[in-house]
Amino acid sequence: MAVISRISVQKKRLDRYNIFIADKYAFSVDEEVLIKFDLKKGKELDEFDLADIQMHDDIQKAFTQSLHYLSHRMRSESEVRMYLRKKEVDDAIIQEAIHKLYHYKYLDDLEFARAFVRTHANGGNKGPIVIRQELKEKGISEKLIEKAILEYPIDLQIEHAKQQAEKSIKKEKNLSERSLQQKLDQVLMRKGYPRDIIVAALQEVTVEKDSEEEWNSLIYHGEKLERRYKAYQGFEYEQKMKQALFRKGFPMELISRYLDRDEYFE
């Protein structure tokens, strides 16, 4: 049977106490553990007491580490578990620490997911598909994701998709109308918007080009291709130009008009 001979506060951690047995340092505990087990000078401890104290102190250490991790921003349960595993905390201790975090309401996966969706919905840079995937990677269940995604209403999704499309249109002035349409579809899909939202958003932006805009776009690409294919002549040159411009989304009628210009057949 061990008897506590002295207890002192740690110099650097005022919430931890050094326990001495037979005037020799034996172990340290968190203040909460000290109070829980009523540790004081003269108290007798057997092997079971010591094991129980050690386990509860390990739980309190993991709990404290988790609070520090959570102090920077909200985290999911899965993120906290991964953090503690990296700290080489045993799974049994992690489970107890997680239970304690829930008890004191430091963890709430539904509220975490809702806040996560609201943040990205307000930012407008990600569509719901990407947000869903990121929540899944953070360990949020499908059931909670379904509830949380309601924080991103359909009308806001359409508005954000529309804004993304308008940005792309400004950047891609030299694309053909067909290529521009394809480009917008690709951009919005990568951003994580579902097909119905993309269709609704593109109905509210001007993708169609007038004849002059389309012609200027063709000239831009045509002149670049001329330099690429300058080593070819005659039929071979014409076929390569037609194929390249057609792949870029220009109609064959406009391509023929471009190639039939007098200056190219002097």
From TrEMBL:
Keyword Cytoplasm among record annotations? yes
Q: Which InterPro entries match?
A: RecX_HTH_1st, RecX_HTH_2nd, RecX_HTH_3rd, Regulatory_RecX, WH-like_DNA-bd_sf
GO BP field: regulation of DNA repair
GO CC terms: cytoplasm
Question: What keywords appear on the UniProt entry?
Answer: Cytoplasm
Residue ranges of domain RecX third three-helical in the record:
157-202, 212-259
What this chain does, per the record? Modulates RecA activity.
Q: What is this protein called?
A: Regulatory protein RecX
- Organism encoding this protein: Peribacillus psychrosaccharolyticus
